[in-house]
Amino acid sequence: MALKSYKPTTPGQRGLVLIDRSELWKGRPVKALTEGLTKNGGRNNTGRITMRRKGGGAKRLYRIVDFKRNKLDVAATVERIEYDPNRTAFIALITYDDGEQTYIIAPQRLAVGDKVVAGAKVDVKPGNAMPFSGMPIGTIVHNIEMKPGKGGQIARAAGTYAQFVGRDGGYAQIRLSSGELRLVRQECMASVGAVSNPDNSNQNLGKAGRNRHKGIRPSVRGVVMNPVDHPHGGGEGRTSGGRHPVSPWGKPTKGARTRNKNKASSKLILRSRHAKKKGR
């Protein structure tokens, strides 16, 4: 999809750059594949804010997306490509030959009328899904499982992808967009192609109200707060916030490493995304 820029006929349209969604389906989603979505304003089950700067926003219907792709060796036809307010990628409605319908994440270059299929060893075409055990090395993939049968978790956002670069025992080596090189089991499923809507990051929303429609509230810097509200707060006049930038709860931030070295998946990372890329 191309970007669409607007003439500055109003202050909110000055600099406005949005995705051109004219080719997407203009009707409502399939009712059987939707469910209600309750807003929580970033609060958990005890009512405490666990994610700041969330709240409000337009009402949404949740589209049930098939991340598992476990209906094997049954071909499906792409009925339409749709907008999904719950994610940055577009979604595709597919109808299997036995009549069942489902939504999948739409990859780039997937068009209405195309056939997609999931199986142990299928063609390397955008939208097809297979385990790494049946996939040729070098394939560009998205919607990658981290545990067999759990459903895709890696490379689901707009424009993201990973590359299958090698096999190591029972594991597949994949290189992520961030530069990280990691292992997943060869039984894990992945879909072929890169995720749709790669221009999503090039949008300019033009006004604060558009962010509020998305449920994003204003963010206030710690250095302009009072000492009771943030470790960077207080001081006479303008201050930089001290030598060691921290979060409101005292954790190092702005570049400091906070990942837990003992996390179970850490041993599956062959090369960190922070590793120097020179000479590699």
Automatic annotation (TrEMBL):
Assigned protein family: Belongs to the universal ribosomal protein uL2 family.
HAMAP family: Ribosomal_uL2_B (MF_01320_B)
RNA-binding keyword on record: yes
GO terms (BP aspect): cytoplasmic translation
Segments forming a coiled coil: none
Composition bias type Basic residues, residue spans: 254-280
Role according to the record: One of the primary rRNA binding proteins. Required for association of the 30S and 50S subunits to form the 70S ribosome, for tRNA binding and peptide bond formation. It has been suggested to have peptidyltransferase activity; this is somewhat controversial. Makes several contacts with the 16S rRNA in the 70S ribosome.
Keywords: Ribonucleoprotein, Ribosomal protein, RNA-binding, rRNA-binding
Large ribosomal subunit protein uL2 C-terminal domain span: 124-252
UniProt name for this protein: Large ribosomal subunit protein uL2
Domain Large ribosomal subunit protein uL2 RNA-binding: 42-118
Domain of life assignment: Bacteria
Region annotation (Disordered) ranges: 194-280
UniProt cross-references to InterPro entries, sorted A to Z: NA-bd_OB-fold (IPR012340), Rib_uL2_dom2 (IPR014722), Ribosomal_uL2 (IPR002171), Ribosomal_uL2_bac/org-type (IPR005880), Ribosomal_uL2_C (IPR022669), Ribosomal_uL2_CS (IPR022671), Ribosomal_uL2_dom3 (IPR014726), Ribosomal_uL2_RNA-bd_dom (IPR022666)
Assembly notes: Part of the 50S ribosomal subunit. Forms a bridge to the 30S subunit in the 70S ribosome.
GO cellular component: large ribosomal subunit
UniProt GO MF annotations: rRNA binding; structural constituent of ribosome; transferase activity
